[in-house]
Amino acid sequence: MTATENPPSKYKYVGTRPVRHDGLDKVTGKARFAADLDLTGQLRGAIVRSPHAHARIVSIDTSAAEAMPGVKSVVTGADFPAIDPSDSAHDEAVNNIARDEALYVGHAVAAVAATTMEEARAAAAAVEVEYEVLPAVLSIDEAIAEGAPIANSTNRTLFTGDTEPSNIASVGPFQRGDVDAGFAAADVIVERTFTTKAVHQGYIEPHACVADVGQDGKATIWASSQGHFAVRSKTAKILGWGTDKIKVTPAEIGGGFGGKTTIYLEPIAVRLSQKAGRPVKIVMTREEVLRATGPAPASKIHMKMGATKDGELTTIQGTLHYSNGSAKGYAALTGAMSIASYKFPNLDLMAIGTVDNTPKSAAYRAPSAPQAAFAIETLIDEVADQLEMDPIELRLKNAVVEGDPTAMGAPHPKIGFIETLEAIKNSEHYNSPVPEGAGRGFGTGFWFNIGEQSSATVNLNEDGTATVITGSPDIGGSRASMALMAAEELGLDVHRITPIVADTESVGFTDITEGSRATFATGMAVVNACRDLIEQMKERAAVMRGVAADQVAWIDGAAVIEGPPSEGADPVSIAEITAAAKMTGGPLTATASLNAAGAGPSFAAHLADVRVDEETGQVEILRYTAAQDAGTAIHPSYVEGQMQGGSAQGIGWALNEEYIFSADGVMQNAGFLDYRMPVASDLPMIETIIVEVPNPSHPYGVRGVGETGIVPPIGTLANAIADQTGVRMTNLPMSPPNVLKALNER
Amino acid sequence: MINRTHVHCTVNGDEVDFLATDSTSLLDALRTELGLTGVKEGCGTGDCGACSITVDGALNCACLMFAPEAEGREIGTVEGIAQGDHLHPLQETFLEGAALQCGICTPGFLVAAKVLLDENPTPTETEIRYALAGNLCRCTGYDKIIHAVQEAAVQLNGAKS
Amino acid sequence: MRYAAPTTVDEAVGLLAADADARVFAGATDLIPQIRSGRPEPSVLVDLKRIDRLVGVGESGGTWTVGAATPTSTLTADEAFTGAFPGLSEASGLIGSDQIQNRSSWGGNLCNASPAADSVPALVANAVRAVVAGSNGERTVPVEEIVTGPGQTSLADDEFVVEFQVDTPPAHTADAYLRLIPRTEMDIAVVGAAVRLTMDGGTCTAATVALGAVAPTVVRVPDAEAALVGSTLDDATLEAVAAAASAACNPIDDKRGTIEYRRQVAGVLAKRAATIAAERANA
């Protein structure tokens, strides 16, 4: 196997494209995902789910199920400790298994474990649950309506001290300047209301786990997740156990996109295993995944924007409603906070999160930003239209730079938005003519990215190879990125480094792989551990050569002796140092942990050419280009992959993906046939332009790249449709029926 | 105990026997009876292609077959694509071209792409996209997968000429 | 569920006659998802693919015969068949992915009795006949008499479709099928339109127009057919075809489309399919 090498400008390994270390197992079918594991004596679990959108659970009779063939254990909410609604873990706990209130169709209410899947399913069907059906709330409009029924009796509006149940999860005002004055100074004012439906993250691997509780009461869990330490802490909390009683081993994860930052199955599997005294495997069906996990929030956003005739955006004012589904959350707040790309001197945003009887929402790639960007990018495009300005010029004129405030008021650090806009402006695509009869659209996106806690251990092996151990599940090639940074630091060939993701007892605490943080924060821990090792190796080399430690420099993967008495001696290689380690102080290993600060925001700009069939409403994407600031691309192929994957998800969200509920709250399209994610023939090649404005807070300048790519596509495609047809699409999805309806109303 | 049917077939060139209840999908039988967990379940309804296999050379979803249907058939899975320690060009180009991220869809794509190139050694981009439309990938946006198939086609044709 | 793989038509009829809950299948591409979504399981799964007569395509004496369990990929790969019935071939080729194509069949697509089945409008447009076997022997019926409503057929419990027969089209005759799906692949038709035309020197002399997914069963559109016959498919004719097709719809609102959408697009697809069929027939 050879690697595709790009000549690096500044680094020997960073910026190259080696074959990923876990790749071979993944192209030969050997990689073990959670559902691929089978333990001796293992039982299969099945979940009993609510058929009602909202109901009081009057009673659960498990006796018939327990008497069925092969059944070894049954659990209900009563098998888990009570948790106070004010506890921050409450909502996830009751989402794992309902206590006395079923909050959406698909909400878990009981579970069984049996010797075969067929027996488990049959027993699950035999659990008798008596429900008292309660009025349900199924949308933002229903949730905020006067006299609306309460969707979740435990919900209290966050940060208000309110003690009465409410369908409002959170209220967040964001203000600066004087919007009235801003509108008064504006020559152009545009205003629209936008609606978007709930969408699913759509990972191809359904949630799965295996739990095995031993006679000592300790549980081992194999799980597919974005963070196995979080699986441990959340499972412990929901069970009322100490974390020392739970070990979580990360399986390979088949996609997450934010949706596997929460847990659904692990506490249930542990209790079933504990009661049965045997390992229990639970694997969701696709239908369960769609009914009971995810989704990203539905939204309704009213936005008004003002600009002067020379293209200065003076004012933004808006109300952003986001549905958190069945439990409280921060969806609306993060949506408003993501409006941070333009220098509006006057800003007045009200973010209102609602609660209803749809599945509890979960994070999805730049959570809440795509919906807000749809509104902002559409309105800016309208301003450009009305002012007859080039849409990129208008954005360049108003783009934020270092020091400009975000919606929250804090100044942006060093960012590369201008550079990203210019990358599209200078692209071959932008400078090529729009195909005959087609439309061209432009849009941008922003995401904060986060740091958080990471640990890494780097062990040097006796032959001079290295093992890099982290606690960040590899959801898109991060093992390769860790190895590349270690290679650069140590001066060791990237394929002499083995990056592994270790269980919760074999590496220090590490937060979830989310917020585009793995390469940034965990990568920094790897770099720090490598730098520690280099100091150790310099000391060992000094011992080996009989010089003072401060006479040793680390140059190009070897200890170089400077000054007498050994000046000019051959450098001491890593292999020589490790071979002599027994004589110089023992094995070489280093561990670093940190709570990373200084995550670098990432901006993206997308350009699309589309052709709308104006008789059927069908939208064909002819050409698509994505530019994004990566800071520094550690492994450019996987940076491009993140940009392309994010673009494709955004395109799916824009065009065809949506949760469709019946009047009684049953999802009508709980399968991949009618939950329409893009297939290969729906998309063109997604051309990428990696912009590199290094993040000064990272040793290699890394910004997270995982999330921003999903933000621009919706606005980009809406603007392209408008360019061809003159029609502004304001309701998602822009599916053929919705587009044709809008064209008919033209 | 539910009666189980004895099934005899060929899997990746080896003759195998297994027992399965008649309602068991071939996917479940391959994974649990034969340990071929490279065949993945993404949907169970034939909509994602993660369980793509060949049956007498033809591309199929293992989730849409009852296990007894395999009787006497030649089944091919991702585990049979490499020859010994020699990877198939598609496996090489997927690795080199970063055509996988999470890797859960990769086995199905490799099986489907191999059938495509076996039948059509010089597919156009559009032909590749439609041939692989039954395989969902949520990570890559398909771009690098399509490129990897194109590159493998070039390599295979080069090896032939 | 018990699985049975008979090798003769009589054996299969016997299995059905012996058990009212037995059910035949070919590709199971509808059956398995239906069972997974909670539909009652049949008692016996009768796999028809091991009966020789059920699999294969061929022409003899001006009549084409297609086994009811023949994979649709076999039909699309058959150049002679596709040459004779380009629309029927393209409709068959639209049933799902390549994976599905190796399992899906006319017999299954028809007898699953989905209003949206892609092959059925084209089968109707070509006056295809179904040979049905049962305890009382065999009978031959027009395909439009098989499906009586969504999920409902006119077949008795002990009957199944063995094969399809269709006459070789007259000279200067061709068909076309178009469907609207939200994506480019993998979806169920929101609207389907099949048109078969016979052309004589640029003038249409015979026409059949059939729509799918716009009513409980496939809809013939006599007004559109009347408008086409005698015309040169000028713009006014095509507008009349579209209007007639829209008027013939009796659709529903569902997760795949609205009533208004289906009506409007049925007209669009009917006129486009007519244009393609005419081009092929004139060629």
Topology readout:
The complex is a heterotrimer of chains A (746), B (161) and C (283).
Chain A: H1 23-28, E1 43-49, E2 55-61, H2 63-66, E3 71-76, H3 90-96, E4 101-102, E5 108-114, H4 117-126, E6 128-133, H5 140-144, E7 168-176, H6 179-184, E8 188-196, E9 208-213, E10 219-223, H7 228-239, E11 246-250, H8 266-276, E12 280-283, H9 286-292, E13 299-307, E14 313-323, H10 331-337, E15 346-354, H11 369-387, H12 391-398, H13 417-425, E16 439-447, E17 452-460, E18 466-470, H14 478-490, E19 497-501, H15 518-545, E20 552-555, E21 558-561, E22 572-573, H16 574-579, H17 581-584, E23 589-596, E24 602-613, E25 618-629, H18 636-655, E26 686-691, H19 713-725, H20 736-744
Parallel strand pairs in A: 1-12, 10-11, 14-15, 18-19, 25-26
Antiparallel strand pairs in A: 1-5, 2-4, 2-6, 3-5, 7-15, 8-13, 9-10, 9-12, 13-14, 16-24, 17-18, 17-23, 20-21, 21-22, 24-25
Chain B: E1 5-11, E2 14-20, H1 26-33, E3 52-55, E4 58-61, E5 74-76, H2 89-96, H3 106-119, H4 125-131, H5 143-160
Parallel strand pairs in B: 1-5
Antiparallel strand pairs in B: 1-2, 3-4, 3-5
Helix pairs in contact in B: 2-5
Chain C: E1 2-4, H1 9-18, E2 23-25, H2 31-36, E3 44-47, E4 57-60, E5 63-67, H3 72-77, H4 79-84, H5 86-93, H6 98-101, H7 106-111, H8 119-125, E6 129-134, E7 137-142, E8 147-149, E9 152-153, E10 160-167, E11 173-180, E12 191-200, E13 203-212, E14 219-220, H9 222-228, H10 235-248, H11 259-282
Parallel strand pairs in C: 1-3, 2-3
Antiparallel strand pairs in C: 4-5, 5-10, 6-7, 6-10, 8-9, 11-12, 12-13, 13-14
Helix pairs in contact in C: 5-8, 9-10, 10-11
Report on the structure:
The complex is a heterotrimer of chains A (746), B (161) and C (283). By secondary structure, chain A is an alpha+beta fold. Chain A contains 20 helices and 26 strands. In chain A, the strands form six sheets. In chain A, strands 3-5-1-12-9-10-11 form a seven-stranded mixed sheet, with helices on both faces. Chain A has a five-stranded mixed sheet with strand order 7-15-14-13-8. Chain B has a five-stranded mixed sheet with strand order 2-1-5-3-4, sandwiched between helices. In chain B, helix 2 crosses helix 5. Chain C folds into two domains: 157 residues, Uridine Diphospho-n-acetylenolpyruvylglucosamine Reductase, domain 3 (2-Layer Sandwich), CATH 3.30.465.10; 110 residues, CO dehydrogenase flavoprotein, C-terminal domain (Enolase-like, domain 1), CATH 3.30.390. In chain C, the strands form four sheets. In chain C, strands 4-5-10-6-7 form a five-stranded antiparallel sheet. Chain C has a four-stranded antiparallel sheet with strand order 11-12-13-14. The radius of gyration of chain C is 19 Å and the shape is globular. Chain C starts with a strand and ends with a helix. The model of chain C has no long low-confidence stretch (mean pLDDT 97). Chains in contact: A-B, A-C, B-C. At the A-B interface, helix 1 and helix 18 of A face helix 1, helix 2, helix 3, helix 4 and helix 5 of B.
